[in-house]
Design brief:
Elements lengths: L5 E6 L20 E2 L3 E2 L2 H9 L4 E5 L5 H7 L13 E5 L14 H6 L2 H7 L3 E6 L2 E3 L3 H10 L4 E7 L9 E5 L5 E6 L8 E10 H10 L8 H11 L4 E5 L4 E3 L3 H10 L27 E2 L4 E3 L2 E2 L4 E2 L2 E3 L2 E2 L4 E2 L4 E3 L2 E2 L4 E2 L4 E3 L1 E3 L4 E2 L4 E4 L17 E3 L4 E2 L4 E3 L2 E4 L11 E2 L4 E3 L6
Parallel strand pairs: 1-4, 1-6, 4-5, 8-12, 14-17, 15-18, 16-19, 17-20, 18-21, 19-22, 20-23, 21-24, 22-25, 23-26, 24-27, 25-28, 26-29, 27-30, 28-31, 30-32, 31-33
Antiparallel strand pairs: 2-3, 6-11, 7-13, 8-11, 9-10
């Protein structure tokens, strides 16, 4: 029988609805980040850097790009005969066909996969956070405390604490209370959604709660373990960790990469971030081009001016165009004489000539004010923006648009333009 000390289960099925049109056709963990990466590259790289060589990736929503990206795990050195990376979509059983209905339900439906490796410990991870963490150090902490459940936690500002699961600990870091998104939090130590379970404890909790609808770690499994007197400890983490679940936090995390001294460094030798890099040619910067503090990926051709921005692979910026404070994903073509300020433009979008993006007043988006804010203009993948139009702030566009879709050639602040058949 195969025996692994610790295996990882990586939850990557999330739709990421707060990322709006960016996740209309792709799961949140597969969204591009930092020019050449995808969000899921960070937890996967953490696994291999921490010596965890068996990872089950649980997919559900729009899994195609994620599956293609992960493949058989070669970029992360996870193409193993025993272990390695395995993509685990929901599947039809003899009695029923079920989607994953909650984070713990997804893990429960893959008990057989975990049994195969007969692990001592199971590491539960989320596929949508940007951070570097050595899970081996966390495992050492788990063992040293003879813990049943260890929750990675980090201090957050108390005013933000109600958005998280909150742990209250004693001086030995043992968890005395766990509150899921409390209105009045009793501490500011927030669960990061990273757990190490001793396998028998996890298995028992999953089997006991298997009938629970929408079974979730924060709402059900953790409280169950706590109520049943399990030894639970908080492993405090003080490094960089970003939940890129909103457009503003996603934009900020990308912009932080180009700070003079970035808080999150992609260039460290000892903790590499691995990805599935497309075989594309090097970038070309023309004589007239101006580039100031940017990340520019392979295959890009720059004929205009790019400042304080992150560009994916194969992006073309036409002559006379100026791009500032923006994220331009791979395969985007921007025509000549455009001015683009504080925009997120998703993959394979075409922007015509003389287009202006990011003007106007900062008024709330009329359809989804909670999603499209922060003064950003967001354009979904495979969209087409015709020449000569102006796009204002807090807007969203998805699909092939034509001049007639713009009122006097303008999409006003707070408006949304989603073509038929596209998802908002």
């Amino acid at each position: 029988m195969i025996k692994k000390e610790m295996i990882a289960m990586l939850l990557a099925g999330g739709q990421g609805s707060r990322l709006g049109v960016l996740t209309a056709k792709v799961a949140k963990p597969a969204v591009a980040f930092g020019g050449k990466y995808r969000i899921i590259d960070f937890p996967l790289s953490n696994c291999i850097n921490s010596g965890v060589d068996t990872v089950g990736v649980l997919t559900q929503y729009q899994p195609l790009r994620l599956n293609t990206h992960i493949g058989i795990g070669i970029p992360w050195d996870l193409d193993r005969n025993v272990g390695g990376v395995t993509v685990l979509p929901p599947y039809e059983k003899s009695t029923s066909s079920e989607w994953y209905t909650g984070t713990a339900n997804a893990i429960y439906q893959n008990l057989d996969y975990m049994e195969t490796y007969n692990p001592d410990y199971v590491l539960i991870l989320s596929g949508d956070h940007i951070y570097k963490m050595d899970y081996e150090v966390m495992l050492d902490f788990h063992k040293a405390n003879q813990s049943d459940v260890t929750i990675a936690a980090m201090p957050v500002p108390i005013e933000e604490a109600s958005r998280f699961g909150i742990v209250v600990t004693d001086e030995a870091s043992r968890i005395k209370e766990f509150e899921e998104k409390p209105e009045r939090p009793s501490s500011n130590l927030a669960s990061m959604g990273i757990y190490i379970f001793s396998w028998p404890v996890l298995k028992d909790a999953l089997l006991k709660l298997s009938e629970q609808p929408n079974c979730d770690f924060g709402k059900h499994i953790i409280p169950y373990c706590h109520e049943n007197g399990k030894r639970m400890f908080a492993y405090e983490y003080n490094g960089y960790w970003k939940d890129v679940g909103t457009l503003s936090s996603y934009w900020e995390a990308n912009m932080e990469l180009i700070d003079i001294i970035p808080e999150f460094n992609l260039y460290e030798e000892f903790w590499k971030i691995y990805t599935n890099s497309a075989n594309i040619p090097p970038q070309y910067i023309s004589k007239e081009a101006v580039i100031d503090r940017c990340i520019i990926s392979n295959g890009s051709e720059i004929y205009g001016e790019v400042r304080n921005s992150v560009l994916g692979g194969g992006v073309t910026v036409g002559k006379g165009s100026i791009i500032r404070d923006s994220i331009i994903m791979r395969g985007v073509t921007i025509g000549d004489n455009c001015v683009i300020d504080k925009a997120i433009i998703a993959e394979d979008t075409e922007v015509g000539n003389d287009v202006v993006i990011g003007i106007g007043e900062d008024v709330p988006n009329m359809e989804k004010p909670g999603v499209y804010g922060g003064g950003l203009a967001t354009i979904g993948e495979n969209s087409v923006i015709p020449s000569g139009v102006k796009i204002s702030k807090n807007t969203a566009i998805s699909g092939v648009t034509s001049s007639e879709d713009y009122n006097d050639g303008v999409l006003a602040s707070g408006e949304t333009l989603i073509k038929a058949g596209e998802r908002i």
